[in-house]
Amino acid sequence: MTTSHRLQTLRGTAAANRSQMAKLIESLARSVELLSIEIEHEEARAGVYDLSAVTYPVLARSLRSRKENIRITIASLEAQLHATEAA
Fold first, then answer.
1. Of 77, 73, 76, 41, which is closest to residue 60 (Cα–Cα)?
2. What is the pLDDT of residues 11-41, one digit of tens each?
3. What is the rounded average pLDDT for all residues in the chain?
4. According to DSSP H, which parts of the chain are helical?
5. Which residues 6+ apart lie within 8 Å of 42 measured at CB?
6. The pTM is what?
7. Domain residue extents for the chain
8. How many CB atoms are closer than 10 A to CB 57?
9. Helices and strands of the chain, counted as H and E runs
């Protein structure tokens, strides 16, 4: 009985963790969307859209970097999520 209870507890915990991870991924995806909007706004404000331009806005460059880091985090979380679902 104890083993059965532990297995159920572990399954419940794993399901809760997967749910939390999925919610985190959704939240991060929304952050990426908001950053994209902010980047577009900053580029429009400065009138510079070329990343290689010397006059490209520093804020937009920083936001792009942040956005890429979040995308990498999302990819890592998705890989973990898929791995736990397969187990």
1. 41
2. 667 788 889 999 999 999 999 999 999 999 9
3. 90
4. 2-46, 58-86
5. 57, 59, 60, 63
6. 0.81
7. 2-86
8. 18
9. 2, 0
